[in-house]
Each structure stands twice: as structure tokens, then as C-alpha cells.
Write a structure and sequence with these properties.
Blueprint: H1 4-12, E1 22-27, H2 29-32, H3 42-57, E2 61-66, H4 69-76, H5 86-109, E3 115-120, H6 122-126, H7 128-143, E4 147-152, H8 166-176, E5 181-186, E6 207-208, H9 213-218, H10 231-243, E7 247-252, H11 258-263, E8 269-271, H12 277-288, E9 293-297, H13 299-306, E10 316-321, E11 328-332, E12 338-343, H14 348-354, H15 362-366, E13 380-382
Bound molecules: glutamic acid.
Amino acid sequence: MASVTELAVARSARPRIDEFRRITIKVGSSLLVDSAQGTIRRAWLGALADDIAALHRGGADILVVSSGAVALGRSVLSLAPGVLKLEDSQAAAAVGQIALARLWAEVLSGRQITTGQILVTFADTEERRRYLNARATIGRLLDLHAVPVINENDTVATSEIRYGDNDRLAARVATMASADLLILLSDVAGLYTAPPSENPSAKLIEIVPRITAEIEAMAGGAASSLSRGGMRTKIEAGKIATTAGTHMLIADGRIEHPIARLRDSGSCTWFLTGTNPVTARKKWIAGSLEPRGALHVDMGAARAIAGGASLLPAGVKRIEGNFARGDCVIIRDEHGAEIGRGLIAYDAGDAMRIAGRNSRDIEALLGLPGRAEIIHHDDMVLNGD
Ligand code: GLU
């Protein structure tokens, strides 16, 4: 566990919810759906929607990762209690997801917020080219002030290649969207020194400055009958989030206005990160990816990207390598010196076709509309960054 001094320092630095600019909120099934009746907890959801609307009005971008499709669908289909077979949970998800999306659209539109549904699979967040697509769509929705409501595409995800729990999915979504905070609303108040059901003297940990082996050992394996993720998947989520520069907190969502209560310093567990999404992403692009090719750019383009612009096809003079969209490539200046690296928005063949050309001509050259930038500024790290 963290030392007492470390905790004391961290406690004084407990962040405030309204400081965050982009927040992913994960809502667990057991909060949304009454487990005995299989019905939606509407009053509670209305109060949460008020909290979301308050953050949104304050200027924060909000993403919601909502569970509940399987829980809702299984009650509509009157499936027997207990663990569902894969095809039954997929059928339940198909039925429940429609209701879930409608529900979010209704409660948020009642608060003047537009929602958009995004269903993702494991591959959408883990394969770089698909990841870039999902990231771009989420980014655009947020630019348009909409709130994406996201779930796993449970009807097509098969058991070997799915998240299965929305804790880790929410963490990947949060990092993909470069969110600076992930809130896991759950049916537990946070991380305890031991599972509280087994140990009545267990204490809530307010701040986790770093996820250590001791912290992981405290997680146990408990999960309620409706939700998939226990504390273990929450700690996994914490690792994903904090490595990518996203702070995470776990809080009890069962109370009314769970987020407003957090603002008034309600109890929860914070998992802090020492970095931020932009720095973490730049480090990932610069260090962990094997470059698959190179773009040689002209002087004007080199100057423009140094000034913070994206790299446009017009500034690319020559291309080397056989890369796919989403791969990391080196950016070289006119003398061949490396000036940066980035994730390329086009496969090598298409990149060669549009190199040196105006972005307006992309559709005519490729037969499809494409992104104006060959490497977007957010996907680029320059030497000296
Ligand atoms: N994706 C599942 C659903 O919507 C929930 C998984 C979870 O509970 O974490 O029903």
C-alpha cells in the first residue's frame, strides 16, 4: 500500500470534479435496472441526468458508457434467472439495447442534450485503424456538443473476443477519447482494504496514488448478480485509465444525484495519474509503436506542423514503406531528418495517390471522401514535444 505520507499528500490534492474538461461516466446495470422487477429506475436516472446536464452546461464534454442492455432484455424476454448462455445474452442485448438507447435519448433530450449511440466491439478499441475511426466519430460528436452513449456490441461480440464488462470498456473509451476523468458509478462506495462483505472492519481507501500489487490484492473478486464487473475489473480499468493519463474514481451510484454528491466531497476512491492524456498519447506514439514507413514533407509543411497544424497531403513530397491506416510513420524534412512521428490516416497506396495534392481532390483521386489531414495534429508527436 502507499505510504502514509504519500496518502496525506494525495489527499490534500484530491481533484475537484468541475476541474475536468472531458468526463466519461460509466453506469452499471444494477443502478439502472431494478434487479427484483427488471424495470428501469426512472427517478434515479432522472436525477443522474440532472447531474450530467449540470456538468455539460459547465462546459465539460461528457461520454456515457451504459450497461443494462442484457438486464433489460432478459426481463422483456422473461429469460430464467441465473447466468445466461451466450446466445441468450446476445438475444437479450439485442432487445434491451433498443430500450436502453431510447431511455438515454429521452432523459437527456429532456435536458436539452443530444445523444448519439455508439456500440463498439473489443476490436474497435484495440485495432489501430478501427480505433482511429471510433476516436474520430466520438471526437466529432463531442465537438457538436452531443453526448455519446456507448455500450459493447454484445449481440455480435463472441465470448473469446469481448470485454464482457463495461468497466474495462469504459476505461478504453475514456482513453480513446482522451478524457481526463473516468467515473465508475457502481453499487459499491469504492475500494476497501478488504471486501466489506467478508470483513466488517474494512476501510474505504480515498486515494490510490498508484495501483500496486497490494492494491490489486484488496480487490477480491466480488460482483453482484446483475453486473459483470467486480472490483477486479475496476482495478483493471484503473490501470488502463491511469497509464493513459486519465484519472479514475469509483463511487456509489445508488444514491440520488451521485455526481452532485461527489462535488460536495462525498466518499469515493480516486485513482490518480501522474500524467495527462495528451502527454501519455504522445509518449505512446513516440515510443511504443514500430514505424512502418516515412513521409518526406516540404519546408512549408514542416513549418506548419511545427506551428501546431496537421499534416496535409499537399505538403508530402515522397512516401516510403508499406503501411496501413493507423500505423505509425516517421515524418522527415527535405533533408531526410526525422522531425516527428504520427499515426497515418491512409494506407500506403492511397497515401501515395494523394501525396502532393490538395485535400479538396481526395474524393476524386480515391473515389471516396477521406480525411483532409494525412496525419492529424492530435495523432502526431514532434521531436522536442
Ligand atoms: N454490456 C453489458 C450490458 O449492457 C453490461 C456489461 C457489464 O455489466 O459490465 O448489458
